[in-house]
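Study this one:
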Amino acid sequence: MIRLAWRLAWRDLRGGKRGLLIVLLCLGVGVASVAGIGSLRAALQQGISQSGRTILGGDLALSTGLGPLPTAVSAWFRAHGARVTETVDTRSILVAPSGHRLLAAVRAVGPGWPMLGHVATSPPDQFAGLPPGPGHRPGLLLAPTGAATLGLHPGDIVTLGGVKLVFRGTIRSTPDSIGDSQLFGVKAFVALKSLAGTPLIQPGGLVSFGLQVLLPPGRDPHRLAVAFARAFPGNPWRLRGAASAARGVTRFVDQAAMFMTLLGLAALLVGGIGVANGVDAWLAARARTIATLRCLGASARLISLINIIQLLILGVPGILLGLAVGAGAPVLVLPLLRGVLPLPHPIGLYPAPLLLSAGFGLLVGLVFALPPLQRAAAISGGALFRSASVALQVPRSWRAIAIQLIAVLVLAALAVLSVPRPLLALGFSGGAIATLLLLRLVAFLLIRLLSVLPAPRNAAIALGLRRLTGPASTLPLMLLSAGAGLTVMVAVAEIRSNLLAEFTHALPASAPGFYFIDIQPHDLPTFEAALKSTGAAHHLAFMPSLRARIMAVNGVGVAQFRPPEQSAWPLRSDIGFTYAAAPPPGTHITAGQWWGQRYHGPPLVSFDARIARQWGLRVGDTITVNVLGRDFLLRIANLRRIDWQSLQINFLMIGTPDPFAGAPHTMVATVEADRGRKGVVLAAVTDALPGVTGIDVSQILRGLAGLIGEIATAISAVGLVALLAGGLVLVSAIAAGRDARIAEAVVLKTLGAAASQIRGAWLTEFAVAGGAAGLIAASIGTLAADLVVRLVFHLAFHVPIGVVLITLGVSIASMTVLGFAATARILRHPAAARLRLETGG
């Protein structure tokens, strides 16, 4: 039977493939988006893996913000045959000879850095001139954007934290430049010696101390790390290997790939509706052929087998086309990312994402093609002697239902396995099914509503509305075809709009003008006097600032504690910590009570309520933190709701003054500055206190808005794929009803209807369907965007009315224009030829 089915399928395909080309395109577009995102993710991960040692600066790296690493640590590694070099990372204000100021992210490097890779500069070979020497000042290298902003030239004398340095040139590339961001200062290099004893490196300051370790060839870094942990038990330092050299970048790539993969799957599911429409249109055109085969003795099973073979002949090439496009994505996209991710970009095929994408394509094709295939198998031989067509409804066999259900479950399982957050994938799968069901429900309700409305006096409009409510109503198909793609685009557009609005309007309105960090407590009077002298600073607020490392939660070490990924950030590195006798202004306690003003006793802590909920913590539980090398067991006295979006001074943990008030620490302050006077305020403070760093919050927010805009643009590009798939689906939906419209037009013309009346009826049908699709897509897309913005980004959601109106307009216009283009050809179809076909003449 298979050989006969193959011969008949191949012979029949030579007679025409109308309808199946839509299947090929819909599958190709969806598979290409999923395969392209997966291939890009695999290429980036491989590039990071290959560059891990270079990025890290060695085989192992230690870091801490609690204070300088003891000399015993370096001695221990050297005793085990390793080479070591030190680094210190901090931020400070760089002052040009012109007096212009710029926030710099400073890396002070010790002798021997970098042990892997090299630093390229302009002019060349200037990195060696950073350390001070006989007869010359210490040097500084700066990122090109910073040098251009300050108007610097090699040889200029600049001031960094009160230290005079010679500007040597600009940084072209460094081994550790992956993921460099200028949000919190432009990158600068100095020699470690040049900062020794300066205000930039002091106890309690916002400074990170690092040690890179390079092992002799053949030594096992993991084994040495285990030995180090035994030699320094309970240490608060962060020890990383090459595999976690760029953990933040890897996490960002994974998260971005996850969201875009789900969007790609949405495009593929939208394309699945196009598959169903395309198969319907193709089978409708073959209805007489199928009826003829049934008259010649073909069984329903043989008919189904022929149709499946023909689908595979054109569907598999569509999937292969999508895979080819997706496999080429790294070649096209990665060169554009070299400025952001300076990694080796290995060009090659990545089988895992391609196989996964092929599986998605085959399953989507199977799920959406099964119903029309079963309806086609129900065509009888007797249909040859009347108008042969595919039945709208046929009884579903249990076997077909089981196959479709299994395919849906496997599709959902693949979606769950393909992203780092399975619950999100499950939510996506449930949301996709709910969206399709909701679109069908709305179509049903709208049909009922239109059927009870009084008929319009205009005959064309009345006929168009009657088509939407009759037994052969196209409304369910139109809503599914147009609504699915538009829903994805509305959700993407509204998420993008809310994020950009948050960083360009909402946050700047509530944010302070400046953050000032690294203020020594004894310098507070000088700091306040400098601000007062400008006459442009007001609303000063400050709090003590220490660095702490969480060591255990309820007695469970952080290495064994496994909180949800989205709330694990406080465990990855040192975090800010403060103390207060009274609740800071604006504190909202959700559980427990604040301690008394004169509390003396075991140390207590006020903790973030949202993180506590995700960690399973309650009032009375304990957290062990390390502050300046000493462990403290803190009992949770209260939980408070923190509004991080306010950008006011906020800390995850606030401890009791006893025992932290006596520890070396700095102060952090927020200040409002009059418009146009920020430069005056910054100059007054940094001239009076060169070791104090001022951070202009508005510049940070502009940088964040730009970054969010770039990410949103990338996500919108994937969303456009969903819209393209939606366009193909709409074309396929119109094609699926072509034969029925030809028959209807012939009957109406025979009864005396003019072509303009028929066209008016159909355009009414398309416009109403487009308006309904636009409204339901705007509603569902808004709901999805609201959930993402509130639950993922933890922001307030606002409905962008412009997006809703544009969606409605695009839906009505596109549906009407495509309908007009398609029906214009139908109306030119001669009635006599159709009548002869129907009567067998």
